[in-house]
Target: Catalase
Amino acid sequence: MSEDDGRDRIGDGGETHQRAGGARPAMTTDQGAPVGDNQNSLKAGRRGPTLLEDHQFREKMFHFDHERIPERVVHARGYGAHGFFETYESLADITCADLFQRAGERTEAFVRFSTVAGNMGSPDLARDVRGFAVKLYTKEGNWDLVGNNIPVFFIQDAIKFPDLIHAAKQEPDRGFPQAQTAHNNFWDFISLSPEATHMVMWIMSDRAIPRSFRFMEGFGVHSFRLVDAEGRARFVKFHWKPKAGLQSVTWDEAMKINGADPDYHRRDLWDAIQSGAFPEWELGLQVFDEDFAERFPFDVLDATKIVPEEEVPVRRVGRLVLDRMVDNFFAETEQVAFHTGNVVPGIDFSEDPLLQGRNFSYLDTQLKRLGSPNFTHLPVNAPRCPVHNFNQDGHMAMRNPKGRANYEPNSWSAEAAGPRETGEGFASTPVPIAGRKERARADTFADHYSQARQFYRSQTPVEQSHITEALVFELSKVDVPQIRSRMLSHLLHVDETLADGVADGLGMPLPDPARPARTPDTTLAESPALSILRNGPDSFAGRRLGLLVTDGADASAVDRLMQAAGGMSVTVTVVAPRIGGVTASDGSTIAADEKIDGAPSVLFDAVAVIASEEGAQALARTHAGRTWLADAFAHGKFIYHDAGAAPLLPPSAIDSPDEGMFDAAGTAPEGFLDACARLRHWDRIAS
Ligand code: HDD
Model:
């Protein structure tokens, strides 16, 4: 800063920073008055003090001081994008919902993905449920499908929700742990809530550590209703199926990714959309009638249960494409307000007590968070169809009724009278309801273990071992032995081998099994749809290859690999010892995207090393160099390397090379990338 004119300067040479002028609009205050100097407050003399009269400073600081709004009480950390939903074929036979009437119809969409427990600044790879909230701006109003990436929930009745969330978040006396369930309070609550056992299987599986939002499923969870033009209703469960297949990371990777890139999922979605690789999901419907609901051994109103896809197949009825990032994170992703109660004619609720409670909670929370009942006036929340009613006033009202009439009925002339009812809007399905007023749970909700067992037994052995390891990890952070033991007493009803494995991992004896509210059914058929590994991608497209290079690397080998990857829609990140890149064997420069210690191999789906022996030897003397391939090998990744890379290979890879290792001398890059579609060589790490 120079004393002579008080204007900001950069660089140590004292040169004035030349800001681009021309097309940039002139800066103004919020009142529109021009601002000539945005760097210096108004002072009495150059060395101050600052004058109270400085309205420009006062306005700027006032606005800054009020920038924050309360973060969401759950799902605080999220990331959103715009896109569209396209209907494949008319569904007029099952619903009169306008967006499903015409094949090819496109409906504008906004989606927000989130973690549940962590605060806004928590890392993306926490072991947690992911929110999958979709807003569809239909011609008959906004429909919000506020789902998760797991099709069941922890509790059956919304009255337990505050306790569940209190138990999952930081413990109140100490304010930690952040964004994790590995603590006493969570497992205390869970072990005292047997209804959570099915959900526990899901969150201890790799579903809770997805590789990307792009590679996870979404679920509406509850049974809803579809209603046709004649008023006939059928139950429906909603699914989002990622076209790119399912994929998760391993727990060791998750912990390391959280350090290396806490924004891993955000960055992934940003990169994909910005590069034009728009992620897609298909909307799937499981439609069933009252007869099926009666026959089905579980209550379809119980949100801790699924309807297996093998019993009611998922009909794919349209696709959701995310093709545009927000212009402003706060305005859109932070201010978007979802509400399960936002349904449109043709879609109705069921009596699920969890859904009923949600329908109350979401409006309430939006008022708290956004500060006014007028949050529907914000562009991201505003319907794209006309809105006419007599709701008025309130903070920040931008859409008040015009003219004299602000009530109904009125007898003003047609032009002045305002909107009228048509008799054709949303009609609740006239489900007959009878019963005594009581605080009770239906007997049909009493089976807490059968589907937990079905889920566990539907996993591949690798996935089963991950569930065991996750339970051991989490419960090892619980320092009250009785809580651990109580969890084991539930696991005994899920699967004895699982309970044995967890008890062994904890170094604890097995207790007696918990007394079940209903004897579990141990004969449920396995459901392959529940496994991630059985529902992986067809190709390596959309994935990221980490390519480590050193000085002296073979430029043509690098080029061949890059070409092959580009041809298969695989993104390559070039990692080098220095960000300035390396000098290849032919003297050319290979540009780097990342310096090695900022880009450990956990960030990539597969890795390759093209190096000179001297370059590799030098790198092997650093910690980042030594761990790069060692980690990739330990995580079961596919590895492509040339002869020069040898000093970087871990001893186990040299002693026992396996089918997940590809020597550039004997394999074309295309062959390696084809193999990568399997994502990992599980045999290497199967315990
Ligand atoms: Fe919820 C947010 C999904 C049960 C109360 N929920 C929220 C979000 C998602 C879900 C994805 C984030 C929306 C966004 O991105 O803005 N919630 C679920 C699912 C549930 C569920 C799939 C069970 C099937 N939720 C649930 C219950 C209650 C709530 C039982 C209360 C009775 N949820 C809320 C909330 C939140 C919320 C407090 C916090 C922020 C918000 O609504 O907008 O109202």
Observations:
- Residues 1-18 have pLDDT under 50 and may be disordered.
- Residues 101 and 568 are 36 Å apart (CA to CA).
- Residues 448-533 form a domain with the Hemocyanin, N-terminal domain fold (CATH 1.20.1370.20).
